[in-house]
Amino acid sequence: MTDFFFSHLLSLLIVVPLLGAAGLFIVPRERIAALRLFTLAATTLNFILSLPLFIHFDNHSGDFQFIEQYDWIPSIGASFHLGVDGISLLMVMLTTLLMPLVILSSWTSIVHRVKEYMIVFLLLETAMIGVFVSLDLLLFYVFWEAMLIPMYFIIGVWGGERRLYAAIKFFLFTMFGGVLMLVGILVLYFMHSQTAGVATFSYSTLNQMIIGRQAQLWLFLAFGLAFAIKVPMVPFHTWLPDAHVEAPTGGSVILAGVLLKMGTYGFLRFCLPLFPHAAARLAPLIGLAAVIGILYGALVSWVQPDLKKLVAYSSVSHLGFVMLGLFSFNVQAQQGAVIQMVNHGLSTGALFLLVGMIYERRHTRQIADFGGLASVMPAFSTLFLIVTLSSIGLPGLNGFIGEFLILLGAFQAKPYLAVPATLGVVLSAVYMLTMYQRVHFGKRTHEENNHLADLTLREKLVLLPLLLFCFWIGLFPGTLLHKTEASVQKILTTMEVKQTTLLDRTERISPAQPAYVVNEE
Amino acid sequence: MFDTIWALPALPLLGVLLNLLTGRRSGNLAGLIASSSVGLAFIISLKLFYDLLQLPAAQRLIEKNLYTWIAAGTLRVEIGMQLDPLSVIMILVVTGISFLIHLYAIGYMHGDPGYNRFFIYLNLFVFAMLILVTANNFLMMFIGWEGVGLCSYLLIGFWFEDPVNATAGRKAFIVNRIGDFGFLLALFLLFVTFGSLDFTDVFNQASVRFSPGDGVITAIALLLFVGAAGKSAQIPLYIWLPDAMAGPTPVSALIHAATMVTAGVYMVARAHLLYTLAPLALTIVACVGLATALLSATIGLTQFDIKRVLAYSTVSQLGYMFLGLGVGAFGAAIFHLMTHAFFKALLFLGAGSVMHAMSNQTDMRLMGGLKNKMPITYGTMVIGTLAITGFPGFSGFFSKDEILWQSYAGWNGRPLFWLLGALAAGLTAFYMFRLIFMTFHGKLRLQSEAVHAIHESPKIITIPLVMLAILSVVGGYVGVPALLGGSHRIEQFLHPVFQQSEQLSHGLKTGKPSLHAHSTEWLLMLTVFLITLISLYLAYQFYIKKTDLPDRLVKKISSLYTLVYNKYLIDEAYEAAIVRPLLKTSESFLWRIVDNRLIDGLVNTVGAGIAACGRALAVLQTGSVQHYALWFVLGAVVLLGAWLF
After folding, report:
1. Distance CA B188, CA A410 (A)
2. Considering only CB atoms, which chain A residues are within 8 Å of B197?
3. Which residues on B lie below 8 Å from A177 (Cβ)?
4. Closest by alpha carbon to A337, among A358, A323, A348?
5. Cβ–Cβ contacts within 10 Å for residue B124, how many?
6. Confidence band for B630, pLDDT divided at 50, 70 and 90
7. What is the biggest distance separating any 2 CA atoms in chain A, rounded to whole angstroms?
8. B392: which of A178, A445, B342, B463 is 20 to 30 A away, CA to CA?
9. For every residue of A373-439, which 3-state class applies, written as one string?
10. Cα A426 from chain centroid?
């Protein structure tokens, strides 16, 4: 029984939200409370289901675990192939954790088309988990694109005034990248079938191919552009502030918390191990773009008059740290990057939730409309402060662990990039504390702010789990670091082995004979 | 028996949690909970001190690791504490003074709506400070380092409704972050060089693998000093400390005078071996310390706000400590750190007592003649002043004299260092007596109905004053130099900590004139005393005898005076040279032009182009999503075709 459970756990995580969405079709649309409760139950169930995944994950192995494989389109070699390593494990956990909180946070803010709202969020969860657990490139691509549709509707239907502009901009940007990625996947597929005579989309099989230098470069760019837009890396980031400003709170939380991680996850899962030579060649350039992102995002964030835009630009800065870590090619930096991906999901997710809570009360997000909130909403201000401190990397909270490991690793790899990147630590204090002061401190100058109600129990319940994890990761980062170490190490080893093999060859494309042993067993 | 060391930070943390749980309901209980948790921590510190003394001097280093905090690749960082003579002095000073200031705050903060919140922050500060001084590795120290910075931020802006306070708090945090930039880079360089961030590991390796003057050690030492300059308010990062006086006075006494701001001094002393291996860095430390001591002392001469005068004096005294460190006299610097904690806490609390009586007035121009109305405050503040000016017999005399003597005779000392240090001592004496005379002597200049109500503060305020006054006198007798028949017990106690540096520096003491005879020491000591006396006399002339003299002098050198009075316009220069250009560039260039016009402009043009094509093809499709789906399929096919053929 338990064996059956564990060997179907990943598909269960994909199917439960889907079933939830199907179940919602039956619930009449007038029964709003039932719709909400049902969705909350479904997402909570999925979170509970993901816990055994975390607990039973073998820390010592960098291989994929909980593997499932079913025939999908056998004629072209595509299969429904799932599995997690330490990196995707954390991404799945982050997704299942954020979902119920997002649903709970939209309890009172979403009153129109509640049924559809809940359905698209459940569909989105299926697609997001699918992206992280797919071990088949075609399956990955399907989930990747499938994710766009619910997100497009979330922004376009429940968004703010300029929601259509933002939704289309979001769609265009990401679609543009997606097309090139599909081309990349297909090229990889044909390359393998031509040289090895086996047509497959299997990640593990394709990952054994040693690809020639020139081809690596083009393929890296085809995949990388999609990921770079998703991250987003400067200068592909301008869709993000618009999408965030127009998206409803729940959409922003998922967008920042999970969707952006797919870009960095994609680099780590595909670009680095599949195209290590190109990655190494482009690393100085990408590292530079990452550092520019850190500083640029911080500086632009500093001058934003709109709270959501400020948080959006701060994401550009934070994700710059992640990119710098990934492209430093050592254990500390990459582990830091993975931790930072989780951290950003927690703290930026919490920031968007907090902004949403004040927006619900005041119907404005302009920083100038606030001031002095600390005396009317002490609980709100206190929680806001903790999240702010987490975001600026105060030791003892989660943000520090990620930033420190990234910078420490980057310093060993490219000190000339790590030094300016460290300035980001100063700038994050500048923009976050300036914002915090303008919102919470000083005198209340607006009559509307004088009688604001402090957080309700429901709102506190939404934030509490996030804060708990912020403290937990800050104090006991080992819990997560142990999960990711072997997987990160494995990716680095793969890169190294391929690089050395490539140096011995002159062939443009080599046969797909396993160039080295992947499994230690 | 040293397992109780965990109780040390745990107690104030428990105080935080208790007060958080009870919330505002606890009322006056909050102060009691907070004070007793720190009081207990002080008792534990005493016990730890006693236990440490029982060990032979060479074994006085105890390390306790709780668990592995961060492990990634070859990096391993423990949550670990260590106890040695240096950290034991720090915990005694921190818990002892904190306890007295907590008591004082019960009276001082009485009736404040944020009473509970105040004690939560204050306890949190003690917790972070204890982590800072007992950490056994650089990264754990950094937790405490940032933790105290956070508490400082929260407490400076404690009365957050006034934007001035909130801004001062933010300024403190950000300027400290600039220092932390250096600290972080030092951590990276330490790890790259030593593969560890553990104190014992790093120092053991450093003494074997490196010789004095090695570039990487110099770089580490200088980067660490950037951090120290931020926390301990040295040039060019001292600007936050005077503004930090916006916080409640007990905070100014505890955090911004006695304990937190000395963290930089502690850090340099802790990393003494790295500094001894980097004589250049050490000399820079001494020069920065001296320059800060002089610069801030001159500003102190001109200020009228009683707390600001004390703030500049703190900056100046910290400069003194760095001078001590910079000439290689680590023990003397720590000695001065301790005595300074006593008398500066006393002076601030005394100022608070005056403010308490004068309904929060801080302008000395409105004070005067308070000595009869507030005899205890007056008496204790005079003791504090005599201590800070280094009057013979008071605590500051012994510690300051030791630093000055070492700045002349220490292995990295120079006669010029002594001369400038003595000059700073003269300035200190002048502005401190100016403060006493303007506040307590002459006639009360405030014209108001409330004048008659001015009276001595309640016991909860005066008792800590008296206790600190006692410490300000006797605290120096742990460090009586051999010249005066003492045995300099504190330096002997610290000797095992600094031993390696002392041995190393023997080889560095080259080409020094052998003027270190007792006669020289006597001569220098008497000269400094004479300078102090002259300053005292001048202050007496200026502020008691001929009270029109200051104004006349100011008129004569008005432009110089205005410059100094406005703190050399350094804040304004930073604002104009760094902050505003950066803000302007971010706003007008990066955001409005690069982001909105350049990138988005390009995107929208492409978008419009696609939309135009789309309209042309709209005959085929109606809904916009499907529309793009079609495009993507077509595009994929075209690109795939291009690739294959």
Report:
1. 9
2. none
3. none
4. A323
5. 23
6. low
7. 74
8. B463
9. HHHHCHHHHHHHHHHHHHHCCCECEHHHHHHHHHHHHHHHHCHHHHHHHHHHHHHHHHHHHHHHHHH
10. 24
| A394 to B625: CB separation less than 8 angstroms, yes or no | no
Can you tell me which residue has the tokens 């006349």? B552
Closest to B192 (Cβ–Cβ): which among A411, A429, A477? Answer: A411
Which phi and psi angles does A73 have, rounded to 5°? -125, 80
- A residues 334-353 lying closer than 8 A (beta carbon) to B: 335-336
How far is the C-alpha of A256 from the C-alpha of A318, rounded, in Å? 11
Rounded-to-integer distance, Cα A379 and Cα B506, Å: 59
Residue B110: pLDDT over 90: no
As a whole number, mean pLDDT of residues B284-310 equals 93
- What average pLDDT does range B24-50 have in this prediction? 90
> Is A413 in CB contact (< 8 Å) with chain B?
no
A321 and A404 Cβ atoms separated by less than 8 Å: no
Verify whether the Cβ–Cβ distance B161 to A443 is below 8 Å: yes
Residues A421, A56: Cα–Cα separation, whole Å: 37
Q: Cβ contact (<8 Å) for A419 and B167?
A: no
Q: Inform me whether the pLDDT recorded for B618 exceeds 80.
A: no
Nearest chain B residue (CA) to A376:
B161
In percent, how much of chain B has pLDDT > 90? Answer: 53
Cβ-nearest to A408 among B191, B607, B640: B191
Residue B326 to residue B418: CA distance in whole angstroms: 12
C-beta atoms of B160 and A440 within 8 A: yes
Q: At A497, which amino acid appears? A: V
Question: Residue A482: is it exposed, middle or buried by C-beta count within 10 angstroms (0-12/13-18/19+)?
Answer: middle
Residue of B nearest to A395 (CA): B143
Considering only the beta carbons, identify the residue of B73, B191, B599 that sits closest to A238: B599
The rounded distance, in Å, linking the Cα atoms of B69 and B544 is 60
Residue of A nearest to B583 (CA): A303
Which candidate from B187, B583, B632 shows the least CB-CB separation from A303?
B583
Tell me if residue A62 falls in helix, strand or coil. coil
Alpha-carbon dihedral sign for residues B607, B608, B613, B618: positive
Bond prior to B581 in cis (omega within 30° of 0): no
> Minimal CA–CA distance to B102: which of B351, B354, B344, B464?
B464
The amino acid at residue B416 is: L
B72/A contact by beta carbon, under 8 A: yes
Tell whether A300 lies on the interface with B, counting CB pairs under 8 A: yes
pTM: 0.92
Expressed in angstroms, the distance from the first to the final Cα of chain A is 26
Chain A to chain B Cβ contacts (< 8 Å): 163
From chain A, the residues in CB contact with B169 under 8 A are 437
Please tell me the predicted confidence (pLDDT) of residue B643.
Answer: 67
State the sign of the Cα–Cα–Cα–Cα dihedral B276, B282, B286, B288: negative
What amino acid is encoded at B175 in this protein?
V
Residues of B with CB below 8 A from A475's CB? 69
Can you tell me the ipTM of this complex? 0.91
pLDDT tens digits along B148-174: 999 999 999 999 988 899 999 999 999
Q: What is the DSSP string of B101-125?
A: HHHHHHHHTTT-TTHHHHHHHHHHH
Mean pLDDT for all residues in chain B: 88
Token pair recorded at residue A262: 């797919």
Give the model's confidence band at B574: pLDDT under 50 very low, under 70 low, under 90 confident, else very high: confident
Round to whole Å and give the CA distance between B140 and A395: 9
Q: Are A190 and A219 contacting, i.e. CB atoms less than 8 angstroms apart? A: no
What pLDDT digit, counting tens, does each position of A326-344 carry?
Answer: 999 999 999 999 999 999 9
Q: Which pLDDT score is estimated for A169?
A: 83
Q: Cα separation of B132 and B260, whole Å?
A: 9
Which residues of chain A register pLDDT less than 70? 1, 505-521
